[in-house]
């Protein structure tokens, strides 16, 4: 299963390098929520997305942030919406990167490309109609 490999590799690298967390960048529209293509807040989850995100939030080794081009106000409203469902996902990648201790150096600049270990994004091939169920299945097996 692709998600077993993806998550297992990220957690293995975390342990190997002595990190406390992995970062998961999560697109919102057409990945977590069905897009409204308006300023209206998207709140209709794809099947299994909410449950998978709740399990990821419950894992103290996981930090998530919104990987979206939505305006700041919309991201802040979405962050509050997630909290009502027991999901913590930062509206800003910099918050997660600071928490992880990720910093710019002479050979890496994160101003244009934020850091992540896993990217969940429809434009990167994520299929919200199938993939949330696979992720939930993987997470459920890992936590049982």
In short:
With 144 residues, the chain is mostly helical.
Account of the protein in words:
This protein is mainly alpha-helical and 144 residues long. 41% of the residues lie in helices and 9% in strands. The protein has helices spanning 2-17, 49-58, 72-84, 93-100, 131-142, and strands at 22-26, 62-66, 118-120. A 3-stranded parallel beta sheet has the order 2-1-3, with helices on both faces. Strand 1, helix 2 and strand 2 form a beta-alpha-beta unit. Helix 2 (49-58) runs parallel beside helix 5. The longest helix is centred in the first third of the chain and has 16 residues, at 2-17.
Layout of helices and strands, plus pairs?
Elements: H1 2-17, E1 22-26, H2 49-58, E2 62-66, H3 72-84, H4 93-100, E3 118-120, H5 131-142
Parallel strand pairs: 1-2, 1-3
Which structural category fits the helices and strands?
A: mainly alpha
**Within the largest sheet, what's the order of strands?**
2-1-3
The topology string of helices and strands comes to: HEHEHHEH
- Helix fraction, binned, reads 40-55%
Radius of gyration from CA coordinates: 15 Å
Number of helices: 5
What distance separates the N and C termini? Answer: 18 Å
Q: Report the strand count.
A: 3
Largest sheet: 3 strands, parallel
- Determine the strand fraction and express it as a percent band: 5-15%
**Averaged pLDDT:** 90
Low-confidence stretches: none
């Amino acid at each position: 299963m692709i998600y077993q490999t993806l998550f297992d590799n990220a957690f293995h690298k975390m342990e190997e390098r002595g990190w406390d967390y992995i970062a998961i960048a999560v697109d919102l529209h057409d990945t977590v929520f069905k897009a409204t293509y308006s300023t209206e807040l998207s709140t209709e989850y794809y099947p299994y997305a909410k449950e998978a995100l709740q399990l990821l939030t419950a894992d103290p080794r996981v930090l998530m942030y919104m990987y979206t081009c939505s305006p700041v106000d919309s991201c802040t409203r979405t962050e509050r919406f997630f909290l009502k469902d027991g999901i913590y996902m930062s509206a800003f990648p910099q918050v997660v990167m600071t928490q992880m201790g990720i910093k710019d150096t002479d050979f890496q600049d994160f101003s244009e490309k934020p850091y992540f270990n896993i990217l969940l994004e429809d434009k990167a091939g994520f299929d919200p109609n199938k993939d949330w169920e696979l992720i939930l299945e993987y997470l459920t097996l890992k936590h049982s």
